[in-house]
Amino acid sequence: MSAFAAGQAVRIADRLTIGHTRVPSYVRGAKGTIERVLREFLIPEDDAFGRPHGRRQTLYRVRLAAHDLWPRYRGLASDEVQIEIYEHWLEPVEEAKQ
Amino acid sequence: MQELNERAKLLYRTVNDLGGLPREPLNLTEHPLLPWEKRCHALLESLNARGVVSMEEKRRGIEDMGQTIYAALTYYEKWAMCAANVLITKGHFTPDELAQKIAQVKRRFEEGT
Q: Domain for residue B6, yes or no?
């Protein structure tokens, strides 16, 4: 059962890591939305260290606005980055209160 | 990104985590691969398919090289070096066996046979 659904607001965790992950530093701490739920895969943190039967987590495609990632970005306002992130790196975000 | 001191910043990014850093424009022209580079690619794909060296293990090996070696080696030189490291770590051969094999191949190459 996946913790997040398509369209949900999420934040990519901002953690200092030692060892291998598939979460590049430029997206850590960024807020985005779930574009789609993919499926469970072996997580890179175990795969990278010779544990092919290690932990499995749901992988999500996450949309991030290019202007949020790079404040001086000069492309279209609608430009975005889509990146695949595992569940253990995602945190729920409270919907904006008016 | 969180506020980090200079030493913590070194840990925050692995050497191949270049997204968002200022860089020279990318060279987008295609360049033909050398025969040994094609063999290197095929070998690593084959090791991945058979579960001997996974793609993530290879990537982790590249991240562990350190900045000096990462910056100096070419793409497939990095693959070859980290494949050797992973295969040694997993006990498929030992550093001395690899050293002897390299010396043997070097000798053969110099003798032109």
A: no
User: How much is the average pLDDT of B72-100?
Assistant: 96
Question: Which of A24, A44, A48 is the closest to B17 by Cβ?
Answer: A24
**What is the per-residue pLDDT across A51-97, written as a single tens digit (0 to 9) for each?**
999 999 999 999 999 999 998 899 999 999 999 999 999 999 986 65
B15 and chain A in contact, CB less than 8 A = no
Nearest to A65 by CA among A52, A50, A51, A76: A76
DSSP 3-state of B104: helix
| DSSP H/E element including A56 | strand A56-65
Cite the DSSP H helix spans in B1-113.
6-12, 35-49, 55-63, 67-72, 75-89, 95-111
A4 touches A90 (CB < 8 A): yes
- Please name each of the domains of chain A with its CATH number: 9-92 (2.30.30.50)
C-alpha closest to that of B16 among B60, B51, B82: B60
Give the closest of B13, B51, B63 to A20, CB-based: B63
Coil/strand/helix, residue B31: coil
Predicted-complex ipTM score: 0.83
